[in-house]
Amino acid sequence: MAAVLAAETRLFLREPSSLFWILAFPAVLLVILGFVPAFNEPEEGLGNRRVIDLYVPVSILLAMIMSGLQAMPPVLAGYRERGILRRMSATPVRPSALLTAQIALHGVAALASAVLVVAVGRIAYDVPLPGHLPGYALALLLALAAALALGATITGLFRTAKAATAVGSVSYIVMMFTAGVWVPVQAMPGTLRRVVEFSPFGSAAQALGEAAAGQWPSWSHLAVVALWTLVAGYAAGRVFRWQ
User: Fold this and answer.
1) Tell me: the pLDDT tens digits for 163-181?
2) Cα gap 180→157, rounded to integer Å
3) How far is Cα of residue 41 from the mean position of the Cα atoms in its chain?
4) Secondary structure, 3-state, 195-209
């Protein structure tokens, strides 16, 4: 497992595009949005918070969506398509070690991006640090688990790297909307917000926003994210094939 993880880490670090989109792009997006003057003014309809405050958790979720739905599925599907997983099954190293290494690498990259986004928000725009750190951490980990589980499901359902990339891209755009990339979930109209909150990242955005404001995240929001994680994880286990 250690040897596989070391090898996959070297390969992962040789992909500058993945590193940029997962690690750097969410922080860059936050910096760009911070240049909009209106985003730095408190709004009564947002509980006297600024739009830029809401975009910190949104940018964090963007990194997770990119990691789980856009970056990981083509890698694993490509390994299977080229017969790498099948050949590994004939060696003492099990293919599951490769799957575990990929999930770990993309998960760590998304968490590193989250730390970077929080730091940029605090230093550049004086965004307060999460007021309820345990609740924030729990919502963060649940959202990451949901993203990786959904990515694993895509990998299992679509057997080629090209198909996994196409489906991952479509899913990525949909999940970006539900996470509030274009309009923060808290600023959406009531009916649309309630619909979006049934999605994993819509609920995750709400949970992170509540924890950032110093409250324990709503159990209903945490439950929605956890349910998506369990369902996607079960589906991935049922449909994933090594060859």
Assistant:
1) 888 988 899 899 999 998 8
2) 27
3) 28
4) HHCCCHHHHHHHHHH
